[in-house]
Amino acid sequence: MEQKLKHVAVPSSEITSHSAYLSRRGFLKAAGIASAAAFLAACGVNVTSTPGAGSATPTVTQSPPVPDNAQGLAADELGSPLNTLAEITNYNNYYEFSTDKQAVNPLSRDFKASPWSVDVGGMVQNPKTYGLEDLLKFEQKERIYRLRCVEAWSMVIPWTGFQLSDLLNEVQPMTSAKYVHFVTLMDPSRMPGEKDPLYPWPYSEGLRLDEAMQRLTIIATGLYGEPLPNPDGAPLRLVVPWKYGFKSIKAIVKIELTDQRPQTMWNTISPMEYGFYSNVNPYVPHPRWSQASERRIGELSRRPTLLFNGYADEVASLYAGMDLRDNY
Ligand code: MTE
Predict the structure, then answer these.
(1) What's residue 61's pLDDT?
(2) Ligand 1 mutation pick, 1, 246, 267, 291, max ligand atoms within 8 A of CB
(3) Which residue has the CA at smallest separation from atom 12 of ligand 1?
């Protein structure tokens, strides 16, 4: 996350054609957003300062809904091919093991992810400690998602997992609960990176309760049809595909419902760079680099980054009326 990336201009492919503009109008209607102007404001798009854009109309993809049973499919719903298992397990951000993406795999090889349990509590009617075996009883779905790291690289990953909403419905959040806080295992004897005093361990993350209940938010328990590999957060991790990858916290041991916005690790380290929302947004640059495009692992040229990582149809309504530049 400390890596410095060169500024990237918006490629011409991102400057919207008339037909894309018209379909975007359809999207705006569907999302219940009154006018293009309102949406521009909500996106935080500054017409005059959008880098390299002759026209500043944002591109919003209209995509089919993400299927629940994607087993055997070779591409996501936008037609992007899957990354290979070797790519997905050898280029990882997992600071509990290393800040070197290629060192995570060898350093996590001996990590024992079983037995495992997750405490689910806080503002819920039915607090419970779940063993991994209990969590595997929730309906497991096959979902192909794009993972877009805040560092501007991305992959397409075939996850197995269950909707977080299934778990939350079982523990029954109190009406006063507004947020969900997630915490990673703290055990420096098994996760040597946690001995590094530079970071406020344990890794933690948070979502608004309605974000946590969205159908795309899953707890992944596997990928490519196998149990979750150690470098990807075994035995279970959050996946929130419309947000930058750091929100998708690995090796979770605690889920707590609260009425206060939770402290999260990256937001504590650098609040200006890593906001609480961290929705993928090509129009809001990171203070040190552009978010307009990304490097898909395995591809040579960069591709434009999509608003909400291409999931706007399913999630934009969560942010209706919010200024996405203030709420980055
Ligand atoms: N979760 C924990 N506990 N520790 C981490 O360092 N890194 C995050 C996220 N979850 C991280 C984490 C970041 S920055 C990204 S981009 C994704 O995991 C990467 O997931 P992947 O390695 O499976 O591609």
Answers:
(1) 55
(2) 246
(3) 249
Look up residue 189 and give its DSSP letter: T
Closest-CA residue to 242 (of 153, 313, 294, 193): 313
Range of the structural domain that residue 234 is part of: 19-319
Digit-coded pLDDT (tens) for 124-140: 999 999 999 999 999 99
Question: Left (φ > 0), alpha (ψ -120 to 50) or beta: where does 5 sit?
Answer: beta
Q: Is the dihedral of CA 224, 230, 235, 241 positive or negative?
A: negative
Label residue 233 left, alpha or beta by phi (over 0 means left) and psi (-120 to 50 means alpha): left
CATH of the domain at 295: 3.90.420.10
- The conformation of residue 236, written as its DSSP 8-state character, comes to -
Q: Which residues pair with 161 in a beta bridge?
A: 141, 220
Domain presence at residue 315: yes
236 domain-assigned: yes
User: Is the distance from the beta carbon of residue 229 to the nearest atom of ligand 1 less than 6 Å?
Assistant: no
Question: Is position 111 within any domain?
Answer: yes
Measured from the CB, is residue 246 less than 6 Å from ligand 1? yes
Q: Are strands 218-223 and 226-227 parallel, antiparallel or unpaired?
A: antiparallel
Cβ(151) to ligand 1 under 6 A? no
- Rounded CA-CA distance 248/246 in Å is 5
- Low pLDDT (below 50) residues in the chain: 3-58
In a domain? residue 14: no
- pLDDT tens digits for range 191-225: 999 999 999 999 999 999 999 999 999 999 999 99
Residue type, 39: F
> Residue type for 60, please?
V
Classified as helix, coil or strand, 60 is coil
Please give the C-alpha separations between residue 202 and each of 100, 193, 199, 205, in angstroms, as whole numbers: 19, 11, 8, 10
Cβ–ligand 1 distance for 94 under 6 Å, the answer: yes
| Number of folded domains that form the chain | 1
Does residue 249 line the site of ligand 1, with CB under 6 A? yes
Separation between Cα atoms, residue 142 and residue 158, nearest integer Å: 7
